[in-house]
Amino acid sequence: MNRDTGFPVADAENDFLRVRRQQVMSRLAAWMRRAPDDVNIMLPFDEVVSALGHAGERRLGLQVITLDSIVGSVDRSREFDRRFRPTSGLVRERWQRLALAQRRGESIPPIEVYRIGDMHFVLDGHHRVSVAHALSLKTIDAYVTEVMTRLSAEGVRYRGDLLVKDYRRVFLERVPLTGEARRSIALSEPEEYGDLAENIEAWGFRLMQDEGQFLDRATVARRWYEEEFQPVVRMLRQAALIETESEVKAYMSVACERYRLIRSHRWDDDVINAIQEQKRR
After folding, report:
1. Contacts from 238-245 at CB under 8 Å and sequence distance 24+?
2. Could you read off the pLDDT of 148-175 as tens digits, one per residue?
């Protein structure tokens, strides 16, 4: 438990030494647990925007935000960890100066942040955020600019999550599903989005050959979902070929297996029987 000495200068120095110890111990604990490398790394703003797709900005002005909602940085991600603890002693002088001012009750300017979803990214004020965390504050004043993105930021907490979001964004550019269809097609592995996009585009090409007309991407996406995906999923459920996996994962696995077994793109009882037989082996 941290105890103040009553001397603001000494307490500010102790504050810095304490958070540096915490940062080192946290990094060591993550290494011993063999946790992913991105567990203690703050999210880089540019990478998040790139993965989700920039759609616009608007200034919201001065607001009170929670410190726990601040998860990233615009350009200082190497100087602080995920909890804004200093990663070296290089920031010590400025950090202690701000901690001293905070302890003396001096006025501290608001920070500046970008907001994406419910997450905030610091543009200016990294040291102020770090000191606020060290002093166990819960909120901080901030000038907020909201960034709208093409994809929702829901589910993004670590840097590794961005790869899946980035692949999903590209997938939806190639296969512009909407509404319930868009919500129902969700995958956990980035490369699966590429495989599924190729599958859908091939299906669309065969459809255009059969009908002798050009179809745009939106039309192919809608018709694939209505005429291919949904009917196949119903067949798979009736044949008990969907167990614990999601509908889209089940579709992808059997679509590839169908062609490997009988070299056909059709769906009928013979296809289902062949797949069932293969699964029993």
Report:
1. 239/272, 239/275, 239/276, 241/272, 241/275, 241/276, 241/279
2. 999 999 888 888 888 889 999 999 999 9
Residues 126 and 186 in one domain: no
Helix runs in 90-178, H state only: 92-103, 126-134, 161-174
The answer to whether residue 3 sits within a structural domain is no
pTM passes above 0.85: no
Q: Look at the chain and report how many structural domains it folds into.
A: 2
Report how far residue 28's alpha carbon sits from residue 177's, in angstroms, rounded to the nearest whole number: 44
In a domain, 267, yes or no: yes
Residue 207 lies in a domain: yes
Tell me the per-residue pLDDT of 68-124, one tens digit each, with 9 for 90 and over.
999 999 986 678 887 888 888 888 888 898 888 888 888 889 999 999 999 999 999
The per-residue pLDDT for 153 is 92
For residue 109, what are the domain limits?
8-149
Amino acid at 33: R
Tell me, yes or no, whether 124 and 220 share the same domain. no
Contacts for 135 with CB less than 8 Å, ≥ 6 apart? 15, 99, 102, 103
Residue-wise pLDDT for 229-249, tens only, equals 998 888 888 877 777 678 898
CATH number where 127 lies: 3.90.1530.10
Rounded distance between C-alpha atoms, residue 273 and residue 271, angstroms: 5
